[in-house]
Design brief:
D-Maltodextrin-Binding Protein, domain 2, 454 residues, 2 domains, alpha/beta
C-alpha cells in the first residue's frame, strides 16, 4: 500500500497516453552531438494541478541546468507504470531517469530492465551516508547497484498527545510494546465521551496491509522465499499473537470502539476530531490530519512501531538500461542534486518551504529520514532551525525506528491484502473468531496467489 504522501503529494497519478518524441534522449542519444550537452529525460514532474510542487520542480530543473550547462533536462509528468513499463522500454519511450517504488527494483533487476550503475555511484556524494537497508533495495544478490533511494517511510504509532495527557499518560513517552499499547488504549477509552483508545483498518485491502505491519512488529513475516517460490508465513505463533492482542483490545478491554470495518479515512477522521488515541501510520498522515480533518500539529505525536520490526516503503530512481555512459553520469548528477543533496536541502529548500507556508520538521520529503551518522544529525538540526511544526513530537519515532528491522511489502501485495482483510475483519467483528481456522484458510489462499509470482 502507498501511504498518503508517496505518489500523491510528492507526485501524482500517472500521465496517460504519454508519448516521448525525443527517442534519442530516451534510448541512447544517437542524435546527440559529440562534445555537446548531454540530454536526459526524467519523469516525476508534478502535474499543474499541484501548483506549489510543480513550481518547485520546474525551478529546480532550471537551477540544475544553470549549474550544469553541459546537461539538458527534459521533464515529463507521471511515473513509471509497471503495466506499461516493458512496452515503453522496448519502444524507446522510457525516460532515462525513472521513478520506482521500493517494491519495483527487484523485478526490474531480475529482468535486466535497469542499468547497472555500480561503477558510477562511487563518485556520487553522500551515497555512503544512506541507510544500508535502503540501498539494499536497489542491489542484486551480488551487490551490484541499479538505483538510489530518494525517500522512505516506516510504519509507526501515531497518537493524540492531548488525550495522552488527559488519561494521565506521558505524551513524550509513547508505548513501545503491545502490552503497553493495550494498557494505554484502555486508559484513553476510559475517558468516555465515545473516545476510542486504538483503531485499526479491516476493509478495502487496508486490513491486510496493517496485518502485515503487525506481523513484522511481532518479528514475523507474511511470505518467505522457499527456493525459487514464495510461501505464506503467518499461520504460526506470531500470527496468533497479533490476533490475540487485537481481539483482547476489541472485546476484553472495549478500547477499540464498536464501529469496525474501518478504512484509513474513517480512522483519520476520528483522530482529526480528537476522538482517537492511537493508530498505526506513517509520518505523512500528520499533514493529512491537519489539512483535511482540521487537526492541529501540536496535538499529534509519533512513536516507533511497537515490537521488533516494521513495514517500510519508499521511492527512488533507476536508469534506463539503454542509456549511454554519459547519460548515466548525467542522470546520477541530477538525482544527487535534486534528491540526495543534504547541504542544499538544509538551507535553500527548507527555507523555501518555510517561506511558502509548507510544513517543515516532519520526517517526510523534503527531508526524508534517509541518512545515518553525521549527515542525519545535520539534517535534524536543520529541520529544528526551520521548523514550522513541533519537531520534538516525532523524536520517539526517529529514535526508535533505527532499532527496528524494516521489511518491504510481500509479493502480489494487493491480492494478499485482500485475503488478509478477512482475518482482520473477522477478529474485530466476531468475539468468538477461530484464530487457527482463519490463519489456515488465509494461508492456503495466499499460497495460491504467491504461486503466480515470477
Amino acid at each position: 500500500m502507498r501511504t498518503d504522501r508517496f505518489r500523491t503529494t510528492t507526485a501524482l497519478a500517472l500521465a496517460t497516453g504519454l508519448v516521448v518524441g525525443l527517442t534519442a534522449a530516451c534510448s541512447g542519444g544517437a542524435d546527440q552531438q559529440a562534445g555537446g550537452p548531454v540530454t536526459i529525460t526524467i519523469d516525476g514532474q508534478p502535474p499543474q494541478t499541484q501548483p506549489f510542487d510543480r513550481k518547485i520542480f520546474d525551478a529546480d530543473v532550471a537551477a540544475f541546468e544553470k549549474a550544469h550547462p553541459d546537461i539538458k533536462v527534459t521533464a515529463h509528468e507521471g511515473f513509471m507504470d509497471p503495466k506499461t513499463f516493458s512496452a515503453k522500454l522496448a519502444g524507446g519511450q522510457l525516460e532515462d531517469v525513472f521513478y520506482v517504488y521500493f517494491t519495483d527494483p527487484a523485478n526490474l533487476i531480475a529482468r535486466h530492465q535497469a542499468a547497472d550503475i555500480t561503477d558510477y555511484v562511487k563518485d556520487v556524494p553522500h551515497v555512503s551516508d544512506i541507510q544500508p537497508a535502503l540501498l539494499d533495495v536497489f542491489k542484486d544478490a551480488q551487490g551490484h547497484v541499479y538505483g538510489l533511494p530518494t525517500a522512505n517511510y516506516s510504519m509507526g504509532l501515531l497518537y493524540n498527545r492531548t488525550l495522552f495527557t488527559k488519561a494521565g499518560l506521558d505524551p513524550d513517552k509513547p508505548p513501545t510494546t503491545w502490552d503497553d499499547v493495550r494498557t494505554d488504549a484502555k486508559k484513553i477509552a476510559d475517558l468516555g465521551n465515545n473516545t476510542v483508545g486504538f483503531a485499526d483498518y479491516s476493509a478495502n485491502n487496508q486490513g491486510g496491509w496493517h496485518f502485515t505491519a503487525w506481523m513484522y512488529a511481532e518479528g514475523g513475516d507474511i511470505a518467505k522465499k522457499d527456493g525459487s517460490t514464495w510461501k505464506a508465513d503467518f499461520d504460526n505463533a506470531k500470527g496468533k499473537a497479533a490476533l490475540q492482542t487485537l481481539h483482547d483490545m476489541r472485546w476484553t478491554d472495549n478500547s477499540m470502539g464498536s464501529k469496525q470495518l474501518l478504512q484509513i479515512e474513517d480512522v483519520q477522521r476520528m483522530m482529526g476530531a480528537g476522538q482517537l488515541g492511537m493508530y498505526l501510520a506513517a509520518p505523512d498522515n500528520i499533514p493529512t490530519l491537519v489539512n483535511q480533518f482540521k487537526g492541529n500539529y501540536s496535538d499529534y505525536g509519533l512513536g516507533a512501531m511497537p515490537g521488533t520490526g516494521t513495514l517500510i516503503g519508499g521511492e527512488g530512481y533507476m536508469i534506463n538500461p539503454k542509456a549511454t555512459p554519459a547519460q548515466i553520469k548525467a542522470g546520477l548528477t541530477w538525482i544527487q542534486w535534486k534528491y540526495l543533496n543534504p547541504e542544499r536541502v538544509n538551507s535553500e529548500v527548507l527555507n523555501t518551504y518555510k517561506e511558502q507556508g509548507q510544513p517543515v520538521g516532519l520526517p517526510v520529503p523534503p527531508v526524508p529520514d534517509l541518512y545515518t551518522g553525521t549527515v542525519r544529525d545535520q539534517q535534524q538540526a536543520a529541520k529544528e532551525k526551520y521548523a514550522t511544526v513541533p519537531v520534538s513530537n516525532y523524536k520517539p519515532y526517529l529514535d526508535g525506528a533505527q532499532k527496528l528491522k524494516g521489511s518491504l511489502e510481500p509479493p502480489n501485495a494487493q491480492q494478499v491484502y485482500a485475503i488478509l482483510d478477512t482475518v482482520m475483519s473477522t477478529v474485530l467483528t466476531n468475539k468468538d473468531a477461530n484464530f487457527d481456522q482463519l490463519l489456515s484458510d488465509a494461508s492456503q489462499k495466499v499460497n495460491s496467489v504467491l504461486a503466480t509470482v515470477k
